[in-house]
Amino acid sequence: MQNEDPQRMSFKLRKLNFIPVERQIEVKDGRIAIVKENLDKSCSFYAKPIQEGEQDKVIVYNKEVDANVVRMAFCFKNKNKDLITVVDGNNLKLLSLKDMKEPFIDDRCLFQWDTKSGNWGRLKCVADPTMYISVENDKVTVGEKAELIRLNSVKK
User: Fold this and answer.
1) Which CATH number is 25's domain given?
2) Do residues 102 and 8 touch, judged by C-beta distance below 8 A?
3) Residue 3: its pLDDT value, please?
4) Which domain of life is it from (predicted)?
5) Range of the domain at 24
6) For 65, left (φ over 0), alpha (ψ -120 to 50), or beta?
7) Per the domain annotation, does 38 fall within a domain?
8) Phi, psi (5° rounding) for residue 8?
9) Residues 83, 97 contacting (CB under 8 angstroms)
10) Total domain count for the chain?
11) Taking the model in full, what pTM does it have?
């Protein structure tokens, strides 16, 4: 199968009834999730303190499974790359939509709320074994320990 451009992948997500919304992923201790480019041009996922007026954002593709379950895929923009989060074992990787082959949306790319109270909750990967979004030494990853997360609206 050939690689597809991000615009087309975004269209496919919409066609699969995923609805895109701009958000910030905030961790309970006042940090937000960002993507940082490494020296080798790969990208990593970090948590950094929120600064006034900053708009680090993610496109959250939502799909309602039933009245109580919404599944989400997270797509970050870094320069000219659209990067989607993918759980790979005990790691949370960022893969370029351009480099992914069909079918790219599988359970490793999807998250849903495990528990939620008000705006805060714990996000788990849909794939087995159950892994939660967590933060270790400023790096956003997955593990058995779940961080409290909320998805903030982004000011236009």
Assistant:
1) 2.80.10.50
2) no
3) 45
4) Eukaryota
5) 6-153
6) alpha
7) yes
8) -70, -40
9) yes
10) 1
11) 0.81
